[in-house]
Here is the input.
Amino acid sequence: MKVLPISLLSLLLAATALVSLSLGKYPLAPGEVAGFLGHRLFGWGTFDAERLQLLENLVMEIRLPRIMAAALIGAALAVSGAAYQALFVNPLVSPGILGVLAGASLGAALGLVFLKTWYGVQAATFLGGFAAVGLAMGIARLCRVNSTVMLVLGGIISGAFFSALVAIVKYVSDPYNQLPAIVYWLMGNMAMADQGMTLKAGIPILVGIACLMLMARHLNVLSMGDEEARALGVNVEAVRLTVIVCATLISTLTVVLAGIIGWVGLIIPHITRMITGPDNETLLPATALAGASYLLLVDDISRLAFTFEIPIGIVTALIGIPFFVLVLKNARKGWL
Amino acid sequence: MLRTLILTLLFAISCLGSAQGREIIDMTGRRVTVPDTIRRVFTGSPPATYMLYALDPSLLVGVNFTIPAEDRRFLRPEFTRLPVAGGVFGQGRNINLEALLALKPDVVLMWAWKDGGAGNKLAERLHKSGIATVFLDLDSLENYPKAFTFLGDLLGRREQSRKLADYARDTLRTVAAATAGIPEQERVAVYYAEGTDGLATERETSVHAEVIRLAGGRNVHRGAALDHAGMEKINLEQVLLYNPQVIVAQERIFRDSVAHDKRWQSIRAVRNRQVWLVPRTPFNWFDRPPSFMRLLGLKWFTNRLYPKRYPINMAKETRQFYRLFLGVELGDRDLRKILQP
Here is the structure.
């Protein structure tokens, strides 16, 4: 593990988070936010009670949970993308490859049409993500070919199937009450992230990310190919299953928190790999930090650019794609 | 036997006669030739469909989308039995032209959007199939009295249309009179919360927020509407800045969650428990679709905003409205459920 890039990226994340905390539609001077944080953490300075109440609400209830959610989601998507790219030995793989995002979308859409409470929607989203990945693995197993190619094909089938089901749900939903809710949710929406939700989804996301990082050494071996990995004494099936379960857990939780946010899981691992090289032991933590910083930045733009809020899924694509093309053009290192 | 034959012949002759038709000028100033007697009508969007329902449901040949099961008992059965044929209202099912022709409408009624696009194209294709399209101007609630009168004349339902037009005119007039003298600083600041997160809204001139304006409320999201679609996403901190006195919410999920969502607590409306959920049975009282239900919505909203200036008995008003416009009688339990959703 290289220490330098990771400490630099940690600093970047901390700086982005602090800057984001002082940005918002409600005009607060950065100095005041800093003063409030000092007061809150160390008891420095004094504030009058009403102002303190307002700052508490704005900084601790509104901005902080959203910043934490953005960072968690960015990290989760980037890490699961990087892990999948190593697992499938394929640079074009993103977290959605096994259909998890399509499955979670279906869960969310069904939840919005039939369940009508947030807990119901979130539970349905979570189950939908796992159902789609389960279907992909089932298809791969059914064909009795134990290769990653079969798994990818299973994922494509499962993803297409669940996307079609989402279209059906949209079609039969009430055009005035339910359809807009589904459409907006599938564009990505950070506004629902409150304190309780961020904590509840955040802990399993952190556990999943940690678990994937522990698999980094095995992933290095796996990216040489299944045969070689077996020869080196790695239990390929067990590693693969662990990685898939962890990646599914964290990417489906991102949908639970904020709807569908694309592109992060494909672009960020690539960009990070160009900085750190392909060793997963460095790449996975580095890409988590980079993904978190990137999504924070994108969310700032989505919050502040206009009088209205741009759905974050749109911004990740609009900003990510040209950036990605530029980086690819200047890339010298191979992807592995 | 002979009698049947003669009757059939007579009917055929009358049909031939009606095929020649008469020329009318529709609400957008187009000259259209329509059959003399119109018996079968299809409508391109829900607001027009509901107007036809209020006028005479037996004229309709289809509806635009499936009526949700829980709303069916507040509508007359001849309406809920109609086939779903789609519509041109920017969402939901598109019209299948062949399915529409199979319903054999005498005329198709369409709400003329300012940017007409899809409607004009459909009208052109229907014209080639020999079906006249009549455009209605429903862009503002203030056009409804005129629109009801126009429809009554067109379809030969003058008695009912006069009642509906009078009701609409009367409602608009009394509400305007009651709210006219309110000084600017006494106008209630209203935030219109759409979407499950309550963070989509409309600007003050938007057709979707018309009830707030007509009821004398001050829509906190100022400015001219950006587009027809609406549902502009805004930031929670922006709502905090607006600090509205009343939040009028479209989604139950939002209304239920906002009461214990800490982020919203410093807003006046939430602190004082002034988050009102819009009644939506059987059609929304406020918007989406923007239908004649807004007349009752306007009474409801004005009464809640300014109970002293506009004192009415909402239960009585609701019963009367459902009888006149929807043709149903409300029981006490239904009434409670509708008024306190």
About this structure: The longest strand of chain B covers residues 107-111. The mean pLDDT of chain B is 88. Chain B has two domains: 16-171, 183-339. The two ends of chain B are 58 Å apart (CA to CA).
